[in-house]
Amino acid sequence: MQPLGRSPWRRTPGRNRGNGTIGAVLAYRHAFHAGNHADVLKHLVLVQLLAHLNEKDKGWRYVDTHAGAGGYSLAGSYAQKHREYEAGIGRLVQRDAAASALPQAVQRYVDLVRHFDAARSASAGTAADAGSNAGQGDDEGDDEGEGKGEGEGKPARPPRRLQRLQPQHPLRQYPGSPAIAAAFKRPQDQLRLFELHPTEHKILAGYLGSDSGCEVRLADGYAALRSVLPPPTRRGLVLIDPPYELKTDYARALGALREALTRFPEGIVMVWLPQVQLVEAAQLPQRLKASAEAQARKGWLHARLSVAEGDARGFGLLGSSVFVANPPHTLHGTLQPVLPWLARELAQFDGAKGYVERSASA
Ligand code: SAM
Fold first, then answer.
1. DSSP 8-state secondary structure symbol assigned to residue 278
2. pLDDT at 46 over 70
3. Phi, psi of 74, deg, nearest 5
4. So which residues are the catalytic ones?
5. Which of 76, 146, 147, 196 has most Cβ atoms within 10 angstroms of its Cβ?
């Protein structure tokens, strides 16, 4: 286990490191990681949760405490730097293109990604890139260039009812969590999206900021949580998806889950967490479970996907987990066969594994 210090796994260039919280926020860009195995797990579960909310007509509120830019170019220099998506969504899309049968939950997620890609790639060619973290120069600090052109590529969102799409070209665009929520949003639903990085916020605001029922705020998502809970309809979903660039994110993510469940004990609260060689990361699942046991009306579910070995120093993202408080009762049955399947498909070493566990009350 790593002692206290900076997170040992992020590979985002660290131009701004050493400036405390703001420096860490500015250093992290999700475009480097978009579509990797961790995004696959997180977004696949997110799709299931949003589909569950849409089973009833009553409106829901989606709260994203760490929203990111909303969508990402896989052809841009950030994503191309380490091509993490190739061992994530890239493998699933290849499987799909080869007409292999995908588990239903995986198919639903892949179809949504394909629709986002098709809509966004078609919307304005290179302008689509400009609005999705791909208009940047090769210098990772080129924030000004990155913001240019946003809005020009404002894409049509994927339709809510998805049919299979034939692959026309390699995947170029990947949806972030706000785009996935927007794909499910009906007129009666609301999105509350928080993002602290000025450039990511600007891109996200250009994409979704003017949509009815949608608010995009340049704000600390942890602190803002109390202002948007509980939803007026008492139906909703909170996604807590920090970068974990700072060790304080582990305690703050736990605090956010507690805060969300205090204000909204029946609400669905989802936390993404990294699997890394760090004491805080190892302890977080147990802490989340204990809090949810005490506060969540319908228990918890924990899905874990381990796909990679660390390097010689123990650095690297070995896998990730998704923790869900108050999961839909069908989620465990849906995910149980999917996690071992994903582990086989996304494996980067022989010991890959995936499993789902839940509380007795879930
Ligand atoms: N949820 C996004 C998705 O799935 O597409 C990815 C989010 S990314 C892992 C984390 C984001 O949180 C980054 O864009 C970062 O700038 C932002 N961030 C970091 N600290 C924050 C805070 N305290 N409040 C709001 N956003 C924050």
1. B
2. yes
3. -85, -10
4. 241
5. 146
